[in-house]
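hey can u check if this looks right to u? its 615 residues, i copy pasted from the old doc so theres a chance i mangled smth
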Amino acid sequence: MVPVMDQVNVVSFPDGEFVSAYDENAKWTLNSETPEIVLDFGCEVGGIISLDYDQLGEGPSALALAFTEAKNYISHESDSSNGSPEYPDLHLKHKINSTGPGTYTMPDASLRGGFRYLTLYQEEDGAAPLHIRNVRLEISFQPTWPDMRAYQGYFYSEDELLNRIWYSGAYTLQTNSVPSNTGRVDVGTIEEGWKNDAFVGPGGTVLLDGAKRDRWVWIGDMGTAVPSAFVSTGDMASTRNALQVMFDNLRDDDVLPKAGPPYLAYNSDTYHMWTMIGVYNYVLYTDDIDWLKPIWPKYIRALNYARGLVNDKGIVSVKGTADWARWLYSSERSSASVLLYRALQTGAEIGTWYPDLPDASSLAEQWTKEAETLREAIMAELWDETTGAFRESPDDVSLFPQDANSMSLAFDVLERGSEEAERVSSYLESNWTPIGPEVPELLGNISPFITSIEIFGHFRAGHPERAVQLMRDAWGWYINHPNGTGSTVAEGYRVNGTWGYRIDRGYKDETYMSHAHCWSSGPTSSLTERLVGLQVTAPAGEEWQFIPETGVHGLGEAEAGFTTKLGKFSASFKVDGNRVHIKWDTPEETRGWLSLPGKSGRWIDGGKGSKTICL
């Protein structure tokens, strides 16, 4: 149990004004003069609240508790989490029938997965005064860790904003790693309030998509979340269990669900392919062949299903049309073809790493050839020479989506340094607003998920300055927002700076938006793997690369590190005038590709090293 007194500010607002009332030894009295108090935990938290109280008079009373992630939604009702467009979350209520002391602990099923602010008030007017004391919070996330600060990775630069962005992604991943029996109950079974005691996956910890909601495994989110978890917390057990639940629910027709139980919808071919990519990321970071072996036959079946989506034009035509939060859903959408290209590439690489798996070598060769054939079809059917970007579909000459164009760079459909890559990077920049890119396929909205992939893409296109500026604009805006959590990364927001993400596209109200969503954590991995440039390229880091981006204006120093089963990896660079000083420290049994500005790349043995070069 974490004593709240040690870490929260208490504010009261009887006149609509926030007035600091923090005193670690205080007990707070609810009465006619102070009808409510608000506890500000200072960051996103989640779990079970307990508190002690003393009722100072006769008659029944009722203590109410309301939760919210955003400061501007503090009220006597909680923000939205249960998914119902008809029934609100409301508040928790504890009836008090006698004078004297008492204790209240939230029911386990009422666990609140994500909040920063807790409002306490008396539900009945004229009730006897109530002393509140000894408020406690039992944190529910990262359940298998005895020390929640035991990160396996780190990042530091001279830019404090980038440091905060990196750690906000890492902390978000912690809040999204939860006990397997604390998922959100499907909305059809409750009429008001919320309930978080659904089974979401095997094991003691599972990586979900959001702290407050949806609290299910949404596998597409892992395209950005897994690399960021690896370089920061190092928690791969939550990833493994999330992937496992997908393959445990592979349907007889070889379709994977887009989300885990209790939802288990099978209507997204793009999320199906994200699962393929998720397997690659997990195995790359862990070398967990013992996990891979039993799911390999299912993996082949699932990839065969995706391969069967290629039509007579040579591109993908999806059957399951649902996708991330985009609003436009064409069947021949370019992002689906790019995702299959990546799935084939990564599947072939897995086959190369583990040739002893059944048919691995022959499948790797086959998938590599198919990926190249698909890439040629993507260029022939979907590239628009006039715009310098990929169309939504062969027949749609008006929509040039952020997702497919970002993925085309991030997933190497376009080669770094090519004219096409340069044009796509420039096109993506043309959609920027001061707080992030407006999504052409979801107008009026900014998606930190797809923008995370855009950041990868700008790095791959040779434009690290664009990637860093995008982090500062979008993630920097959110983390400094007075109504944000100041500690996590948000699901999305509007181009006008409000929280009404997708409010006109099915979300029930503005408070439904999640302020701690793992799909938005892309900058965490990009800062380590792309800016500092330290990245594993073979399972567990047996091979790695160090390609620092030393030319970003105003960023002359950065370092990062992470851990695999082979040991600790770290690297740094420092620009001093026209010189760059670099250092690296990797396990001795490994080898890495070192590529420095203006120099030819070369293989080096693992161990400690340093070098100074002139620019």
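Residues 154-532 form a domain with the Glycosyltransferase fold (CATH 1.50.10.10).
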